[in-house]
Amino acid sequence: MTDVTCASGVELLMDYLDGVLPPQAARDLEAHVAACERCRAYLESYRATPRILREATTADLPAELEQSLR
């Protein structure tokens, strides 16, 4: 694979992060991301999502709010 674009890179992202993308496709994606600031930012936000979700779900609700939701 060559000619990775922003759109085609997004389609490859999950396989890339899971480490199952074929080596040449991974290199092509890495080359695109290295040259594309927008894709670099997207990749970093994609990588940060699990951490953000973990942090958001570990927050304790104030007792008053928790009671009102029940």
Proportion of residues in helical segments: over 70%
Shape: elongated
Between the first and last Cα atoms, what is the distance in angstroms? 52 Å
Q: SSE order, as H and E?
A: HHHH
SSE class: mainly alpha
Largest sheet features: none
Oligomer: single chain
The portion of residues forming beta strands comes to: under 5%
How many strands?
0
Number of helices: 4
Low-confidence stretches: none
Averaged pLDDT: 90
> Measured on Cα atoms, how large is the radius of gyration?
18 Å
Brief synopsis:
The chain is mainly α and 70 residues long.
Describe the structure.
The chain is mainly α. It has 4 helices and no strands. The protein has helices at residues 6-18, 23-35, 37-57, 63-69. Helix 1 (6-18) packs across helix 2 and helix 2 (23-35) crosses helix 3. The N and C termini lie far apart (52 Å). The model has no long low-confidence stretch (mean pLDDT 90).
